[in-house]
Amino acid sequence: MAPLDVPRALLDGEKVVKWDDESGIGLLVTIKVDERGFFLYWIDQKKDCEVIDMSMIRDTRTGKYARVPKDAKLRSVVCMGSQEPLGDKTITVVVATDFVNVSFINFCCNKKQTAQIWTDGLLKLALNLVQLNWSPIAFLHKTHTKLNLLVDKNGKIPVKNILKTFTQNKEDRKKVEKAMESSGLPSNKNDFVSPTKFTFEDFFTFYKNVTVRPEVAQLFDEVCNDRGASGKKKLMTVGQFVDFLNRTQRDPRLNEILHPYANSDRAKDLIREFEPNKQNAQRGLLSFDGFLKYLMSADNPIVCSSTLELNNDMDQPLSHYFINSSHNTYLTGHQLTGKSSVEIYRQCLLSGCRCVELDLWNGKTNEPVILHGYTFVPEVSAREVIEAIAESAFKSSDYPVILSFENHCNTKQQAKIAQYCHDYFGDKLLYEPLNTHKLEPGVPLPPPSMLKNKIIIKNKKKHHHHHKKPTASVVLEPATAATLVLGNGDLPREPIRQPSKDSNQDDDEDDDDSSSDTDGEEEDVDRTADLKHVLQGKPLVDKVSNTKETEAGTEISVLVNYCQSVQFTSFENAEKKNRHYEMSSFDEKQAMTLLKERPMEFVKYNKNQLSRVYPAGTRFDSSNFMPQVFWNAGCQLVALNYQTMDVAMQLNLGIFEYNMRSGYLLKPEFMRRADRTFDPFAESTVDGIIAGTLTVEVLSGQMLTDKRVGTYVDIEMYGLPADTVRKKFRTRIVPYNGINPVYGDEPFVFKKVVLPQLASLRLAAFEDSGKFIGHRIIPVVGLCPGYRHVVLRNEMGQPLPCGTLFLKITVKDYVPDGLSNFAEALANPIKFQSDLDKRTKQLAVFADEMDQSVNPDDTTLAPAEPDVKPVTRHQTSCPDLPTTHHMTVTLPPHRVSVTVNPVSTVEHLVNDDFNIGPRGPQKKPIVSTPSLSEGIVAEPLTKLMENKIVKEKKLELEKKIERIRRKQEKERHQVQHLRSSHDSERMRKSKFPINSRFVKRLSIKNIQESILQTHQDASESSECDTDNSTSSIPRMSRSQSERLLAIEKKYVIEERETSKKYHDIVFSSLEKVMRSSQTNQMKMLQVLLDKETAEVMKKLQDRRRHDMKSLAKIHKDKDEIGRIKREVSSSMVEKGVNERVRLYQIYEKKTEELEKQHEEIRQHFYDLESKKKAELIKEYEAKLQNIEFGLGSSTKTELKQ
Q: What residues does the PI-PLC Y-box domain cover (predicted)?
């Protein structure tokens, strides 16, 4: 985004009179704006300075809309300069903390031209989105600027101002004072600092010492880890910086041609910009301070700058956009007892809202008013509201504004409303449809770009039907009476009609849409009479169409074109009429019903026609529903209560800040194109859209609060139901630290974001008590990966002064479990082929039975390929899980398969990991899905033990043991060789032959017998020696026997420790597989319940539809058909409820049974784990005793002889 350009007149300042009605005082001051456009400030004659944050300025006014003193004496005081009207020389600055709490600061200039320059200049600076999206280091500049403005009379900065900026408690104040001392600044609260000795570099050093930033220091060390010069500060080279920019900070999904990789020139430019040491900059070296500045700079944003700019195609039909909308705009609080305001209309429009609501009622003095009908909310003048809209509509956005009229006025006062629209809107009012977009069936709505600076009226349209049936009237059921009293919205609260396709009532519905106008009651007496008619079940005749003021009603009707309110009947009827200019309003309950029952039709409807969704009338506290729910269905005008800054409103403000806060956001392509269908409840990847994987690691926070409290961070995602994650990801609480908490949690992974285009990330910081600190809403498609700082906002969306979070963001395309290796192979086939060759050589040892050691960590097993023979290897005597005596290792000629994750998905009933045996070429298996009544049987441990991961761990153990024994065999051979050489030498000297049968060779075939039978061999040797005393028998020396004993003990102990380690690993893997299997089985029960419920409901719907068609053939009387239809519908509803209850009872029973089975399996698992651990220990204790007994006895016998 372009930097702010502050006009010279605002930099130079102007002498004005500041006044306010409350004090009745006028002061001569000089107003100025700082060179960066951060603040509007003024200095009085005593040199006292006051400052207003530019981002807090919501509006500036002069002339007719400026405020003037009410007191005549004050008016005479503030008058200065020319004799022009006081309003023309006045600058009114509107400051607001939210949409309701607004204050006014007034300045009087000496002439009209000066006031106009300042009004326009300030408004342009205040509404610029740069004010909200400065980089973290720019916000530090802002804080530094404010401290330099608030100097004392001697022009020095009080240290107490610096302390107050960062902390409000004694404990943290000591930390801040210590940081000031280490930065070479005075730290006593009564001290003062000269601005010349408090440059931004000094301030940044102080900030760095306060926040410390150990996590950035660790990152810096990791990037330049090969420059570990002892005794010197590490410096990052150009090459290392380029590597960091490309590997870590770059989005891997970007096109390399459109978005080239960073090169050394780019790195050198950044180093020159951020490295404070000029010598380092010239040498192309980056210090820690320069690296930190880069991380906090505008060159390292959290949101792509193009997302904030006007980057959407604004030439699509209006129905293809989400439109920022307000509900009951006039209210400032409670729906029944709150207050009304004209000012809030201005504030909503200035924030980018493009659709406001006007509840128009008859005023007592024949002047229409705006109020919440039948409540205690005071009224406001309709004329003043229209005037305010005319003045504020296009200050923040040029794109069209829709006025949603809820019209309860009689025709006389409707005529006045029409006249006010003519008078105040003038050419801004869209009187007639555009020539290129006529009001004809099938013609799309015009685009926002063709409606710039235009105001569109949404109201019911009068149609003249010359062949209209004389009995046309609107009949409301008694259940609608309460809704009529509330008068909230266009759509009566009756059940939504879904007529069958063969019903021939389009003409009647068309007439009803045209003639029904429940907004047109003339007097309160008439309303009461109408209500009595409704309660008695009598038809309510449309009085407005029959009244004498028909011409006046027509006057407001002619202003309606592209937003004609009609009563919604059905999707089929809307599609048949194909009138894109007709729209309907739904309260959240009605919209939710449509969304649940017919989601895809709702999306299709919203491709062509506008729909408005507003909060239910029961939300008396003015709370909001989550707008994302209806954005997912493509609803354009999702209207919220702007006076309530809850999470829903924060999400709305955060989303519509993007696209230059135009108030219009283009919907994703598949929600616009007629040839595409979209299910808002989709859990699998949407056709044509690449799902994403997002990983967020919250590393630390800076200056979150000036209180000494614990803090934590919540991470949420809003999008499709499958993508929405709330109240799941939360960091640990860092106690008593609001200045520089370091969280250091594991990364939070959003594994599969089905539709990134509709998803938004919300980061929210809280005190340990749960009190809100700040948050930020970021669209997923606009996220920048890597190490980023994010500036937090308050509820209203205003940035916190220095509050930031430091994150590590990782974004990539979603790859299903088990296909990650395949994706890597596609991304880098050369490397993958090299790895294949390497692994083929490593696996050859198994096929050729070579006696060389193989590192099992480098060998990955794959499922068997066709025509590949399994090679069996003798299983060791290690304490494994119960299994066969031989383990089959499948050896393909080359490894092509990819590893499959053991956790199966809900969509698959049978997990491939539980299948046993090699897989050959076979057709797609037919999976028999059990019914809910059959239930699901828990998988036993014997089946889970055959899981691929468990078997791999067991095979790893076998290889480890075999390697240990090979080493043992080698050392035994060496000892044996020494012994044989010694014996040969002795026999040569004594000239006695050696009886070969006493020389026992140790080999892999008899290694176990030699260990266990050493004692027998020694005894046997003694007996032979007795029988043949003339022979001289060779003996081992004592040192050789001790060495052999040490070797045996060493390797048995090593084998024991390895077995223990892998015992834990194998059982840990088995436990994970077991829990994964059990979780999937519980999910499958839910899937079966949902499936059978859907099937039952579909059968009932089909049966109802069939019955309805049969009725039309049997009965001719419409009233009788209607009565029977209601009976059939009631019967079907009752049957549906009973079926749901029956299925849910079965589900609960089967769930309980399955949980009991799972508990038994788990208990069996724990018993087996303990048993095998005990057997393991016992076996190796026996082995050690045998070695001690066998070799020890033999050695003693030899020494005695």
A: 556-672
